[in-house]
Amino acid sequence: xxxQRNISKRQFILSVFVSIILFFxxxxxxxPQKMDNDANKLIGTWFGTHKQSDVEGDIQTxxxxxxxxxxxxxxxxxxxxxxxxxxNELGTWKLKDNRQITIITTHINGQHLGKxxxxxxxxxxxxxxxxxxxxDHVETGTKFKYIRVNDQFKFQQ
Length: 157
Description:
The chain has helices at about 10-30, 40; strands spanning about 45-50, 55-65, 70-80, 80-95, 100-110, 110, 120-130, 130-135, 145-150. It is of the alpha+beta class. The chain has one domain (about 10-150): Lipocalin, CATH 2.40.128.280. It has an eight-stranded antiparallel barrel. It starts with 8 loop residues before the first helix and ends in an 8-residue tail after the last strand.
């Protein structure tokens, strides 16, 4: 995950607005994917907090994979009990062999990464139930723990 720094409040609001528009556009444009057995368990909204070696503080995540293969994810960095940065990502996801999740990010904060440019992240699932998800980022080894939340879940202020 690449976190952009030093964005103004206006840029942030604009990026959230554009992200929402792009997300709804992607739902209509994405092709349905063939679902592995556990893919249906992944669909919905998940919340988790983790640490990352290249980021100071805790990273909170709200992740929503959709049944059509689209995903929307929001990150928030917390330092000294205060949010200091938020980032939204949009793209696609797939599950292979009920064990490996691949996420392809095509937009960050509403900005398309460019033609034929994207970020690929791979995760290995350690645990998946209807209410919990534990996985490891393949490239970095970062461990993630998520709990299922309702679709209207928002970060606490």
